[in-house]
UniProtKB/TrEMBL annotation, chain A:
Bilayer-spanning residue ranges: 41-61, 73-95, 123-142, 149-170, 182-204, 225-243, 249-269, 281-302, 314-338, 396-418
Membrane topology type: Multi-pass membrane protein
Protein name: UDP-N-acetylglucosamine--dolichyl-phosphate N-acetylglucosaminephosphotransferase
Organism annotation: Eruca vesicaria subsp. sativa (Garden rocket)
Any single Gene Ontology cellular-component annotation: membrane
InterPro entries: Glycosyl_transferase_4 (IPR000715), GPT (IPR033895)
From TrEMBL, chain B:
Family per similarity comment: Belongs to the glycosyltransferase 4 family.
Enzyme class: transferase
Transmembrane regions listed in the UniProt entry: 44-65, 77-99, 120-142, 154-170, 182-205, 225-242, 249-269, 281-299, 306-327, 333-355, 396-418
Function in brief: UDP-N-acetylglucosamine--dolichyl-phosphate N-acetylglucosaminephosphotransferase that operates in the biosynthetic pathway of dolichol-linked oligosaccharides, the glycan precursors employed in protein asparagine (N)-glycosylation. The assembly of dolichol-linked oligosaccharides begins on the cytosolic side of the endoplasmic reticulum membrane and finishes in its lumen. The sequential addition of sugars to dolichol pyrophosphate produces dolichol-linked oligosaccharides containing fourteen sugars, including two GlcNAcs, nine mannoses and three glucoses.
Required co-factors: Mg(2+)
E.C. numbers: 2.7.8.15
Bilayer topology: Multi-pass membrane protein
Region named Disordered: 1-32
Designated name of the protein: UDP-N-acetylglucosamine--dolichyl-phosphate N-acetylglucosaminephosphotransferase
Length: 423, 423
């Protein structure tokens, strides 16, 4: 569900796109005429500090992490930092090429203001995806492990994520029908399921043991089905909890920070080397995700100079599903995704067709006041606006990101309190 | 080096194409007005028979291949067969979407005739790539091997090929500069190089042992560099030996047939199980390549109703490099590629800039006679025309494909005669 009006696809949106594009030249007169607004680096600096400081503190000072494990993690962090700067540099370049191919949208939440006339380049998620893949591929050379199982999982993860980026970009370019969009990610998860060599058991919560009759339940194939559904869910849920400048990347980096903190805590608190390897694996893929996403957020934060496209949202969702599955913390991941789950549940009536579903389910923008008002559509964005009153786009986005962070914090609290009682 | 005039790029010296695309920025006409010409299934049947019969005969009757291996290969062949029909079905669907996004070209070799006015959908290689990946991913479930080394290589192969398809499609959409096109495939080969756990030695030809002083030379890292360069070469060489309807796919399927025959011959004549596995690995990826390519050829054969795009040529080149490297027969693969090497050598002066290099280095088409005449450009297509006189496009393509087949046959003869003497 693109939140931006696409100009050259046949859609049933309220305002007919053709009228606008015919008045504009289909090609930018010269690539050098187009200048992207400068990246909002100070905002990114603040966000990065908020998200990464706790993680880095825990990694380097609080826990006594094995040197052998700490070194690859820090090397990975270094590579991710390089990835940050490369992405920062490439986005303006890619934006020119993307505009030249008429892949742009108009910011619906600014319609009626001068900003609503600006052609915003779309699908810049492709830059993030490619830089992420290159960082992840290069990192393989720095991880001095002979463990062939690790190599299988890592390559399967790369294959899955790469296939997802490919499908996302094809969708951005060709505007694939939504049924296909639902089906294809299932194929992208297959290398992952094949490589998953871990246990397929779940631990029954203590209070329920007497009802179920078992302490540990082996789900076998059903567990693999669960993993596939998790991947399809993650891949699509970020896509529908979108529509505000910076919301898609914002939710991703908040969850990624939570993932990193969780990984480090599990590494610090555990002596089982297999668990440590699994969580380190998750760190190796989440750090590059975080770094490259922050670079794009520098351009996508309010007011957005680029749009991320389905390419980004499916890539981010898939990467987080991959680390959750291969790092063996998928239940924790689901709790981090609480706002997305909420949004999905709210959206169900419209997605299922029971309630009429318009092309865009965005709040209503009032150019006079600059505030957004919630409509009757079933999304977290609209429901939040209806509960808490009208807000500006930037302030609403920040509110929703804080909500995301609170959901993640709640998960940590839950794990702490249920630790002895639950498992 | 696209052979087809792209309509909406700014740097073309060709007649202004903007007016044409502005009329077609939005397709308000219903999708079913556009009909793709029916696939040329008769031609494909003939080509398939010519190419596959020897391979199938050798596999099933001539050699005594062990049952377990044979059934895996036949399962893979079955899946590839399904892939053929899926690709055949998907191409007309994808062609509509691709046209809607203005990704089309005009057939330069038909300029001046009515056929030269038709908008031919571009980049249909994406369909081949996606179906290939799905077939390859699904096949993993049917190969009942516990060998983790095999899984590492297979997943690394999938990751490399998938990344290459992604880069090829991004290039088709955004028209990436050629320096970038050369650099990026090197990254796509990295998972492959990491997974390559084989020997890095080469066997010195017997006549040279006296000069070199060794029988077996361990190249170590240089061997990996050679593999990286091989992949970059294969990826780009098909792209520049192109420009006639059906030539890109044609050369691929001829080479693929040669690869399959070579694999089966090596399996049949060897008792080393590692050797068997390596060549079987190559078969598992080459059969789907062959099947999906033949489906695209049904539409791309003269006169082309779709164009393949860089997506196809880089995908095909990468897949063949992958099987050559992981199947340990890269030197043989290079001899199969003799026409491409010849074309590359002929092209070097223009690629390097010593001789002026025009946008297209195609032969000159005469609408009156319908024949192509060779120009002074340094390509195999032009040199062939200058040696053997003007030809129609279809006949020239068939000539070049026969030349490709002869080069492959020459390789087999060479191996046979040098068998005892060479190694």
């Amino acid at each position: 569900m693109a939140a931006r009006r696409r100009t050259s696809s046949v859609t049933n949106s309220e305002n007919p796109p053709p009228a606008i594009t015919e008045n504009r030249p289909t090609t930018v007169s010269s690539p050098e005429d187009f200048r992207l607004a400068p990246p909002k680096l100070s905002v990114i600096f603040v966000i990065s500090s908020l998200l990464c400081s706790l993680y880095l503190y825990l990694l380097c000072f609080h826990y006594n992490v094995d040197d052998e494990l700490k070194r690859p993690i820090l090397i990975n962090a270094g590579l991710s930092l390089v990835g940050f700067f490369v992405t920062l540099k490439l986005i303006p370049v890619a934006a020119r090429y993307v505009l030249r191919r008429n892949m742009f949208g108009f910011d619906i939440n600014k319609r009626g203001t001068p900003q609503g006339e600006v052609k915003v380049p779309e699908s810049l998620g492709i830059v993030v995806g490619i830089v992420f893949l290159i960082v992840a591929i290069i990192f393989q050379f720095f991880n001095f492990t002979e463990d062939s199982l690790w190599l299988v999982e890592y390559n399967a993860a790369l294959a899955s994520i790469c296939f997802m980026i490919l499908l996302g970009f094809v969708d951005d370019v060709l505007d694939v029908p939504w049924r296909v969009k639902l089906l294809l990610p299932s194929f992208a998860t297959l290398p992952l399921l094949m490589a998953y060599a871990g246990h397929t058991t779940i631990v029954i919560p203590k209070p329920l043991v007497s009802y179920v009759g078992l302490e540990i339940l082996d789900l076998g194939r059903i567990y693999k089905l669960y993993m596939a559904l998790l991947a399809v869910f993650c891949t699509n849920s970020i896509n529908i909890h979108a529509g505000l400048n910076g919301l898609e990347i914002g939710q991703t980096v908040v969850i990624a920070a939570a993932i990193l903190i969780h990984n480090v805590m599990q590494i610090g608190a555990s002596v089982d080397s297999e668990i440590r390897q699994a969580h380190a694996f998750s760190i190796y893929l989440t750090q590059p995700l975080m770094a490259t996403s922050l670079a794009m957020l520098a351009f996508n934060w309010y007011p957005s100079a680029v749009f991320v496209g389905d390419t980004y949202t499916v890539f981010a969702g898939m990467t987080m599903a991959v680390v959750g599955i291969l790092g063996h913390f998928s239940e924790t991941l689901l709790i981090f995704f609480l706002p997305q789950v909420l949004n999905f549940l709210l959206s169900l009536p419209q997605l299922a067709g029971i309630v009429k579903c318009p092309r865009h389910r965005l709040p209503k923008f009032d150019p006079a006041t600059g505030l957004l008002t919630g409509t009757k559509d079933g999304t977290l964005v609209n429901v939040y606006l209806r509960i808490f009153g009208r807000k500006s786009e930037k302030s609403l986005c920040i509110h929703l990101l804080v909500f995301q962070a609170l959901a993640c914090a709640f998960c940590f609290l839950l794990r702490h309190f249920l630790a002895g009682w639950y498992k």
